[in-house]
Design a protein that fits this description.
alpha/beta; six-stranded mixed β-sheet; globular; 12 strands
């Protein structure tokens, strides 16, 4: 056996194949590190709404989701840098669609509710921050997170509820993945409000159930696969609708959905062929 191994190692073709394998392995490791730890990509979308008076200035929403604060990839210090990046975009409204935390088994550190929320207290937007919980927030302990969020007056937490936030009528759903979303309750709360109809949901699967009066729905949960194929798509979508609403922009009955890839990671602290992202959505008056 040893003689066979020596013979193989002296074969130039075998040596070449081994060298290629090592090079590919190292390249993959670099790609994983880059996709996981890079600064979020800023993606942009423009939509129109008849709720804005003709000739009025457009307004912008900065949308982020699936922050998943946990070691090693998303310590509070990294989140604080992302908060600065969001603030530099000077949004009129910030929307966050849950999974603030990750308690994944692969985490090197699980942070306290205070450590998770404190960086979010630095977010700045003209009309404030709207936030809904995700499944990991409930599994971690939503009452503790909600208590910390209450310390920050600019953060409006919506759990099957709605609020007037400047020119936005914002409806927020509890987590649909764990069976807590109540579209009817949120719609009833939003009915007397005026302005751009914005809905927040952790999961995109509620999109077909959201009233057709909605201008925009933002959601996360899917991470756009987190680990995806280089040619597009992913082994798992985390959506009952498969790829239909799993990533990016979708349209249905006049409504627009944006499903974000998120910022952090779940299960494994690894991204591949997906990247952390922040969406900036500009809403203009309808022509």
């Amino acid at each position: 056996m040893k003689a066979l191994l020596r013979a193989l190692l002296h074969n130039k073709w075998v040596r070449g194949a081994l060298a290629l394998g090592v090079a590919l392995g190292l390249s993959l490791m670099v790609k994983v590190w880059y996709d996981t730890m890079r600064d979020p990509v800023v993606k942009r979308l423009t939509i129109e709404s008849s709720a804005l008076p003709a000739g009025s200035a457009p307004v912008t929403i900065a949308f982020l989701t699936d922050i998943h604060v946990a070691g090693p990839d998303m310590p509070p210090s990294r989140l604080a840098r992302i908060v600065d990046q969001v603030n530099a975009l000077q949004p009129d409204l910030i929307a966050i669609t849950g999974d603030l935390v990750s308690e994944k088994r692969a985490a090197t550190k699980v942070y306290s509710a205070e450590e998770i929320i404190t960086p979010l207290g630095g977010l700045q937007a003209t009309y404030g921050v709207a936030l809904v919980p995700g499944n990991h927030d409930h599994w971690f302990g939503w009452p503790d997170l909600e208590a910390q969020l209450a310390r920050h007056s600019q953060i409006t937490v919506l759990v099957n509820d709605a609020a007037q936030m400047g020119p936005f009528a914002v409806a927020g759903l509890d987590d649909d993945f764990t069976g807590r979303a109540d579209v009817e309750a949120a719609a009833a709360a939003a009915a007397p409000l005026t302005g751009i109809r914005l809905w927040l949901s952790h999961s995109p699967d509620v999109f077909p159930s959201v009233p057709v009066s909605a201008d925009l729905v933002v959601a996360g949960h899917t991470h756009c696969g987190q680990i995806a194929y280089p040619w597009g798509g992913s082994p798992a979508t985390m959506s009952d609708f498969g790829e239909t609403f799993a990533c990016g922009v979708s349209e249905l009955h006049g409504k627009t959905l944006v499903t974000g890839a998120g910022i952090g990671t779940s299960l494994l602290p690894v991204r591949l062929f997906t990247q952390p992202e922040i969406w900036v959505i500009e809403v203009r008056a309808a022509r």
